[in-house]
Amino acid sequence: MQTLAYGFPKLGEKREFKSLLESFWKGKVSEAEFLTGMNALRDWMADTYSSSVDIFPSNEISYYDFILDTALMVGAVPSRFGEYKGIETYFEMARGRQAMEMSKYFNTNYHYIVPELESKNFYLLKNYPLEEYLYFKSKGIDTLPKLISPYTFLKLSKALVKSEGSSLPFYHLSKIEKIQDMENYLNAILPVYEEVLKQLKQEGAREVLIEDPALCYDMDSQEWDLVYEMYNCLSKYVHVYVITYYDSVSDYERFVRLPVKALGFDLVSSTENLENIRKYGFPSDKKLIAGIINGRQVWRANLVEKIRLVEELLKITPHLLISNSCPLFHLPISVEPEEELPVHSVQIEGLPTLSLKERLAFAKEKLKELKLIKEAIEGHQQARMEVERIQHLVSVPFGVREEVREKIANLKEEDFERKVPYRERSKLQQGVLQLPAFPTTTIGSFPQTEEVRKMRSSYVAGKISESEYKEFIKKQIQQAIKIQEDIGLDVLVHGEFERTDMVEFFAQKLEGVATTKHGWVLSYGSRVYRPPIIYGDVYRPAPMTVEEISYAQSLTEKPVKGMLTGPVTILNWSYYREDIPKREIAYQIALALLEEVKDLEAAGIKIIQIDEPAFREGVPLKRKDWKEYFDWAIKAFRLCSRAEPHVQIHTHMCYSEFNDIIEYIYQMDFDVISIEASRSKGEIIEAFERFKDWDRQIGIGVYDIHSPAVPTKESIASVLERSMKVLPKELLWVNPDCGLKTRRWEEVIPALKNMVEVAKEFRERY
Ligand code: GLN
Ligand code: ZN
Question: Is the pLDDT confidence value at 581 over 70?
């Protein structure tokens, strides 16, 4: 039996990836220095892998995103970027003025760049897999070149299609839905993959690792036929190891018949794969890659159980590899540097007092778990003892609060309902707010300047006192309110200067949730965040946002929005325990947030925004699992948003596909939603063409905040005009498509000025 791992976080122990990338963007390091730095990361990654596992891949250090790399590999450079001129063009595509759309990778918070297929003329442009393979080969290191399967690539792409009789532009980008189209695209793209594999083979590679998570979506028989043909073609050159993850494969029997050398399963996210292996057995001529170590959660594995599982699998097939269940880049690098995690407070007889740290395993520790399992199976005495020690540790109960559990058990149907229906609420609210047509607002955060970040770290380091820090935040709020009033916005925000991150901020205030010091994870490009760890029952010991919001409101006559992060997003962007259902954790968070809503309401706040940018990404891959998810996700939102009818509840969502879930979003029963739509042009608008009963107010983001470019008035107006084709103008709000914290004031002020001017013009014109 061998161990294999993949998807190790490329960030580096000291976030070297991020600093290198950002220094390069700022022109502080040359391209040559940049590439040298990236190679150092490659070396570090190979060292890390090889100290624990037998087999590991190459082509894992992408300079922005591995899907974008694949688009470049096959020559899919949209024409607006002109001819490909190397790394410059690459970053233009990723983050330039006309950057490509970003979307979330399956049900995760990793954002990939959505390939735009303008034609079927694919050609080999950049052979990244070969480049990295050769880099390691020159150092005498044998790696498994890793590629995204053509099928998954196409599933994640959008293709230019002709619109038929809709209000959209004549050509627009759309997912490849029809089987005939998929076949045509596959036929067009496969020759490029063949060329890549041929070149790899010439250079000595005999095996490749192909990631095909799209095989976990619902698939029909015709799609399986295409996938079969695809692997037939790819297997002509090298041995193919195909891995799937984030869910069970959609059809086990078809999957195991694919003409490949090894088949990889996620044995953690659901029980289906394992049940099928047990039921149908496993072909004797193939290798089984068992993803048994959870790549998405931070808990130490119960190794006794894992070993039992491996022993069972070994009886089914001797050709076994054990692996992580999905890419490890969802995890921080190591728990080693975490010194301040909570300690178990209740001493249980016969059990050691332990810190949360002892229960955790991040990416590096996961590699060690694979190694330990292998050694224990091979009979190493020391490994066996270590397994037993860990088993003892992880069985200690942690963070239980009976009163929280009781509250959840006592919830009644009416706890999920607002007292007055939307149509009546909206009249009450307008009576209070008196907003003009096309009301203008922002999504919450304003620039987190160098100064803001410096003051925060001084405060955290104890260099300035709490009162000094609070004074400083107040000054920032004052400035922000003044700027917004000068620009002429209708609904103001306090700017979120006191928040590091929209989830971490609440995590630090809630009990039962731990935050780390160094647990950074990349979400896209160079953007990192530290997912909190929900380890116990969650409750709110004290108000979390009331002080700053009320202060902001005291400075202006205009309404200031209270800003909260929703329960689904807090849950989805955190690691969470696996011993109680997700539904229950979501309700626990929702109850804590409801207390906050009630406090804001009592403080006279008239609008409360509960952000749910992660609402979409939590949607399961398979339709059969949707009902259960939406049931608790919608209810969790409703539970925390049960404000008085005159209080206007907003929510915000971004960077996801919403078309197919708009009906569910509607059921959340908010009053206003703001939604991203400037990058994913058109499509969200299509959804409203279909869902005619939509009657909630909505702000379709009029410009992309991820780009430093100041949007023109024409581009802002065109989003509004597009929206007006499918939505009554009375429902429309005008706002950017997300928070502005990553931007600079010099960009924000002119952008918002343009936005407000457009809104004013629209009030005159329509
Ligand atoms: N209110 C948050 C902000 O403006 C929302 C961020 C988000 O949607 N990711 O920063
Ligand atoms: Zn957003």
Answer: yes
